[in-house]
């Protein structure tokens, strides 16, 4: 049997397998598409409502798509409350909190991973134990503390209490524990300082961990509600989550206007998640695997 005949025979025998594999891929894509549409249906309907006039919403018929799309809801949301100011406040607060946690948590994790000092394991256990304390249990004492310091109605009361987190320390420590201790010892023998070791060696090697930390922290800071509501009473310092609740109290009948405001404020957090989802998934898993 010649080589050409062998190739033809192999192609004929492998054709059913290829068709079966292609059918499985098509079926998998179809199932994933249906599930994604089902999960995204509330969000897609909210976007549809944002473009609806109130007359389309308050009818007996179920209007899933606006019959007369309009941008008036977005204009009203931007004029009823200073929503742009709230968005800028949230960007500033979430950005500084994210930057602060990346710096503080990486430094703390470095100490728990590479430095040797008395009581290191006990101290790390205490830090991890703070994750079991709900924020509601300490919010009153924290409020009384910042109030006595005169921090109310300021950016520092929104930012400083959240400049570190036990979750961030744990995440970075898991990454650093995957590196051999000899790496740190070799750097010290070459005259590298601890800070330089972190900036030039650890940080580039933990880009996925930093990406995961950035996405996780930014979204949490962007969605903060109870603490900003408690410590700020001025429109100049309010964050975007408080602004949306103000839209509801201003005109309870204009649901379309409120939904338009909600759609505007979820765009940044969804964008951050979409951009950093690979880093988030990679960072959450790669730090738990050594080798």
UniProtKB/TrEMBL annotation:
Keyword Membrane carried by entry: yes
Limits of the ABC transmembrane type-1 domain: 87-276
Superkingdom in the source lineage: Bacteria
Localization in the cell: Cell membrane
Entry's Gene Ontology cellular component terms: plasma membrane
Pfam families the record matches: BPD_transp_1 (PF00528)
Membrane topology recorded in Swiss-Prot or TrEMBL: Multi-pass membrane protein
Protein name: Carbohydrate ABC transporter permease
Organism listed in the record: Roseburia porci
């Amino acid at each position: 049997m010649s080589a050409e005949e062998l190739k033809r025979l192999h192609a004929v025998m492998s054709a059913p397998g290829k068709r079966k594999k292609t059918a499985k891929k098509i079926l998998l894509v179809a199932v994933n598409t249906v599930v994604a549409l089902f999960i995204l249906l509330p969000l897609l309907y909210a976007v549809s409502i944002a473009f609806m006039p109130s007359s389309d919403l308050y009818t007996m018929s179920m209007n899933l798509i606006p019959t007369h799309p309009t941008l008036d809801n977005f204009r009203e949301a931007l004029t009823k409350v200073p929503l742009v100011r709230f968005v800028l406040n949230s960007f500033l607060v979430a950005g500084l909190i994210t930057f602060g946690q990346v710096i503080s948590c990486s430094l703390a994790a470095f100490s728990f991973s590479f430095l040797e000092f008395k009581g290191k394991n006990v101290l790390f256990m205490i830090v991890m134990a703070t994750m079991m304390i709900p924020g509601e249990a300490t919010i009153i004492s924290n409020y009384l503390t910042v109030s006595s310091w005169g921090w109310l109605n300021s950016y520092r009361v929104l930012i400083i209490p959240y400049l570190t987190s036990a979750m961030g320390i744990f995440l970075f420590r898991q990454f650093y524990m995957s590196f051999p201790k000899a790496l740190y010892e070799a750097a010290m023998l070459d005259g590298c300082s601890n800070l330089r070791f972190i900036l030039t060696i650890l940080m580039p090697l933990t880009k996925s961990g930093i990406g995961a930390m950035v996405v996780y922290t930014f979204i949490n800071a962007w969605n903060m509600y109870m603490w900003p509501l408690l410590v700020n009473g001025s429109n100049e310092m309010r964050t975007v989550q408080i602004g949306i609740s103000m839209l509801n109290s201003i005109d309870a009948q204009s649901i379309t206007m409120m939904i338009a405001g909600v759609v505007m404020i979820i765009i940044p957090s969804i964008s951050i998640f979409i951009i950093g989802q690979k880093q988030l998934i990679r960072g959450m898993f790669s730090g738990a695997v050594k080798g």
